Amino acid sequence: MDTQLRDLVVVITGASGGIGWACAEAFAAEGARLVLHAHRAGDELERRVAASTWGERAITLRGDLRDESTNEDLLRRGRERFGRVDVAVLSAGIWPPEPRPLWELDLPRIREVLDTNLLAVILGARAFLRGLAAAGPRSDGRGASLCLIGSTAGRFGEADHSPYAVTKAALAGLMRSLKNEIVRLDPYGRVNLVEPGWTVTEMARPALAEPGLLPRVLSTMPLRQLARPEDIARAVAVLSSPALARHISGEILTIAGGMEGRRLWGEGSIDVAEVQRRLDDDGPA
User: Fold this and answer.
1) Is residue 139 part of a domain?
2) pTM, rounded to two decimals
3) What DSSP designation does 22 have?
4) By 3-state DSSP, what share of the chain in percent is helix, strand and coil, each rounded to 5?
5) Is 40 a member of any domain?
6) In a domain, 1, yes or no
7) How confident is the model at residue 285, as a pLDDT?
8) Domain containing 273: what range?
9) Strand, helix or coil at 31?
């Protein structure tokens, strides 16, 4: 089926990370043109793009998204190179691996998580909408799309990572507000939120390797397996597609194997060794 993503211009933040890079590959496979952002891993992103088969359809930019000028530059570079920007996937974020209850957290760590995961997303969405206001809607009716990347931590909470959970929960309110604003700029414009659960990325691998964590995580999932970045990226591409999601806006798509806030599987019901073998066979995500 034609997704109608071909030749659309897609901005992806955090494109050097597992989910961000998978999104870049998913959109590239559909013929989109890409504006890719990285912060500290800019060299790695440039290397990957140069080694890809679609590098001539992509540009990269590095910078701190907590700075509003970085967000504005990202959208400006996209317009200068490709004429306009049609889709934004705001994927950049951090998850401090050291668990800490709130009463032990210092202000710098709290502020870093809030600014990176929430303020930067607000600034990125603002820059995208400002560009849409200046350019106007596409004449072919392929409406603009903004996709935010949340987390099941925003739905269920996450003990010892409360600032992270707060930022991901806040994205739902942002999405539900912006889906009513974007149509003032583009009558076919859409805003949605993708909410991954535990996903095998380099950021998550150290935590997943902790003794006892894998069976505890999988015990809440009917599908006793972890998501891959590609699982998230395919969903993002579908929600961004003018053909497949033309009438989908203001929605949260949870990709977490049916995860619930309760234990479904008892001790001995999960073959941890088999799950670990699959992770090792697949290699780094």
Assistant:
1) yes
2) 0.90
3) H
4) 45, 15, 40
5) yes
6) no
7) 46
8) 9-282
9) coil
Query: How many Cα atoms occupy the beta-carbon half-sphere of 233 within 13 Å?
Result: 24
pLDDT confidence tier of residue 204, bands split at 50, 70 and 90: confident
Closest CA to 202 of 74, 40, 71, 62: 40
What's the pLDDT at 283? Answer: 60
DSSP type of residue 233? H
Query: Domain tally for the chain?
Result: 1
Q: What is the CATH number of the domain that holds 205?
A: 3.40.50.720
In a domain, 241, yes or no: yes
pLDDT (0 to 100) of residue 188:
98
- β-pairing, 87-90 vs 58-62, is unpaired
Residue with tokens 């590098």: 55
State phi, psi for 240 to the nearest 5 degrees.
-90, -10
Three-class SS state of 270: coil
pLDDT digits (tens, 9 = 90+) for 77-100: 999 999 999 999 999 999 998 999
Q: How buried is residue 261: exposed, middle or buried, by Cβ count under 10 Å (0-12/13-18/19+)?
A: exposed
Q: Of 21, 82, 164, 188, which residue is the catalytic one? A: 164
User: How many alpha carbons fall within 13 Å on the CB side of residue 161?
Assistant: 20
Residue 264: which pLDDT band, with cuts at 50, 70 and 90? low
Q: In the structure encoding, which two tokens stand for residue 171, read together?
A: 């994205």
* Residues in contact with 118: Cβ distance below 8 Å, sequence separation at least 6, in sequence order: 166, 167, 170, 171
pLDDT (average), residues 22-49:
96
Reference 27, options 71, 80, 83, 88; nearest CA is: 88
Instruction: For residue 220, give the nearest of 153, 149, 148 by alpha carbon.
Output: 153
**108 has pLDDT over 90:** yes
Q: Does the annotation mark 164 as catalytic? A: yes
pLDDT tens profile 164-202: 999 999 999 999 999 999 999 999 999 999 999 988 887
Radius of gyration of the chain measured on its C-alpha atoms: 19
Which amino acid would we find at residue 284? P
- pLDDT for the residue numbered 262: 67
